[in-house]
Amino acid sequence: xxxxxxxxxxxxxxxxxxxxxxxxGYTVALHNRSVAKTDALLAAHGxxxxxxxxxxxxxxxxxxETPRRVLIMVKAGAPVDSVIDQLVPLLEAGDIVIDAxxxxxxxxxxxxxxxxxxxxxxxxxxxxxxxEGALLGPSIMPGGSKESYDALGPMLxxxxxxxxxxxxxxxxxxxxxxxxxKMVHNGIExxxxxxxxxxxxxxxxxxxxxxxxxxxxxxxxNRGELASFLIEITAEVLGHVDAKTGKPLVDVIVDSAxxxxxGRWTVQSALDLGSPTSAIAESVFARGLSSQRGQRxxxxxxxxxxxxxVELGADFVxxxxxxxxxxxxxxxxxxxxxxxxxxxxxxxxxxxxxIAALWRGGCIIRAELLKDITKAYAADEAPANLLFAPAxxxxxxxxxxxxxxxxxxxxxxxxxxxxxxxxxxxxxxLRRKRLPAALTQGLRDLFGAHTYNRVDMEGTFxxxxxxxxxxxxxxxxx
Length: 478
Ligand code: NDP
Hints:
Homodimer. By secondary structure, this protein is α/β, with parallel strands linked by helices. The protein has helices spanning 12-23, 35-45, 57-62, 78-87, 105-116, 130-136, 146-159, 177-206, 211-221, 229-239, 249-252, 262-273, 278-291, 293-302, 316-346, 352-358, 369-378, 390-413, 418-431, 437-448; strands at 5-8, 28-31, 51-53, 69-72, 96-99, 121-128, 139-143, 162-163, 166-167, 461-463, 471-473. The longest helix is centred in the last third of the chain and has 31 residues, at 316-346. NADPH dihydro-nicotinamide-adenine-dinucleotide phosphate binds at residues 9-14, 32-34, 37, 73-76, 79, 82-83, 101-102, 127, 130-131.
């Protein structure tokens, strides 16, 4: 019997996706560069469904029904190109090559264009949910031709997570759209984790609340508007005691956060798009600062603190919760704003309601909040910014007094809250009638004759700063 899908790359993610397909009734052809992984998978889980063992890519391709669906789940980067190069001569027009790894969307755009030359479909699929999600139902973000989605989409929807019976999988858009949306998902994940860290630090260093007690607080928060996977696992990590020392595990973990690159890519893309994604950028930078352990050791010795003692209000913990919620809203607003900018730049028909809906289950940022975000973008007229949707402008307005109190308390206590504070600055920036950008434009005109527009008349102007300081209308040279 021919297989409906072939999976090459059977490390943890590929193996679990292959098992997920098989458990859902599909026949799955298996391939891995080193055959040992294929055999290990078959030995441990071969009875879970219909698998076809293959040793070479040619055998893998020969094992598939047409149009062939070959899912690549190898290490991101050059290995993906290497596998594609080996596959192309083996495939026929109309076949579908799927890259479900964490590839950069620019690589996906390049690969899609290259495979289109061979009349092959290339589908870049963002998969979130880690190992467990891949096995039990991830959130799936496929990009590529609509035609390829017709042949592949139903299978992906079947293996995806479900929320209210709806699959957490939908066609995202052409070429790199799926990987782009997955990248922004990861960027939001960075911000989500950072705001949780800031809340923890404020309650620990500011209010002296021990991790075990905080586990209870996060469990409680998980019952309300913050309900989400990350809040849930924060309670689990904070409640965990290290068996070796009897201390809270969080106290024996080195405070240097790693990163694999998708957060950095998100910020790089945001800069290219001119999208103010400050919450995600601050989260990436916060990880960077945490890993500068050498400098931090010196900083602890030579830099003054001059903290200002603050009497914490009785509602401090509730204030922190509200600040966390408001900052979280900002990071989602900025992520969606970035998606909007990318849709325009890359000509993708991104549907924010569908994207928010498929993030509701399976993925790391799954959260109750995404239900309301889905609703906000399903309305006839999508808001220009998530924060302008009535439900969210109301919610963030209600959190604002607590948010301001928390940020000023943190500043006085010398506790860094880069995302709490930069998100508040973004919020205030959005609502200010006049920004100091007017002065920036004046300065740019003085040192570089970069010109400015006036509030009271049409046109582009330049003041002759080094001459008689009269204003002239600038000639548009573009
Ligand atoms: P790894 O990223 O560790 O990659 C290992 C796999 O790649 C092995 O099957 C290996 O084969 C194969 N491989 C490496 N180089 C080559 C090559 N040149 N040619 C052919 N095959 C090669 O595996 P993961 O399962 O952790 O991740 C797979 C993808 O999924 C990555 O893009 C990752 O970023 C992404 N991802 C991972 C998540 C996770 O939680 N781990 C979550 C979401 C996405 P061999 O056995 O022969 O060495």
